[in-house]
């Protein structure tokens, strides 16, 4: 199918597909779309390997019991889907450092690592602090008319605008 080999899809087609996936997730599994919990589950598994099961006694893991479930499989599916999409569209190629990233943060690999690591920490903490990520709040929470999700999405957009201004110097 020609649709799968396009380099860029219509945002309307993608939006409709995500909406359909969300509806199917609710109907077939009674679960919502979200990704941030999968990352804390992976870290919990790593902690258990290093420190044993006593890690599961932490208050966070008592509230959010780590397990390989829907959220983890969704993240795996997203990564596989991105790979397949890039491959089918002819856009799959290895890039050690994207040119935009290097132009903004220079040739110093340590500085780029610190910025990327710090940004990842901020995103992870923010997602857990907000009780979910952009997909959990933005896709699943808003469709259920959850007020906290609408507030979170407004904050996501405000943060995105501020970040774009800082990165692109608009």
Record keyword descriptors for this entry.
mainly alpha
What topology emerges from the helices and strands here?
Blueprint: H1 11-29, H2 36-51, H3 59-63, H4 70-89, H5 99-105, H6 109-129, H7 134-143, H8 147-168
Helix pairs in contact: 2-4, 7-8
Brief overview:
Helix 7 packs across helix 8 (147-168). The protein is mainly alpha-helical.
Commentary on this structure:
The chain has 170 residues and is mainly α. It contains eight helices and no strands. It has helices at 11-29, 36-51, 59-63, 70-89, 99-105, 109-129, 134-143, 147-168. It is globular. The mean pLDDT is 85.
> Secondary-structure element sequence?
HHHHHHHH
What does the overall shape look like?
globular
Main beta-sheet annotation: none
Rounded to the nearest angstrom, the radius of gyration is 18 Å
The strand count comes to 0
Could you name the ranges where pLDDT drops below 50 across 5 or more consecutive residues?
Answer: none
The average pLDDT value, as a whole number, equals 85
Q: How far apart lie the N and C ends?
A: 39 Å
**Secondary-structure-derived class:** mainly alpha
Helix content: over 70%
> Total number of helical segments?
8
% residues in beta strands: under 5%
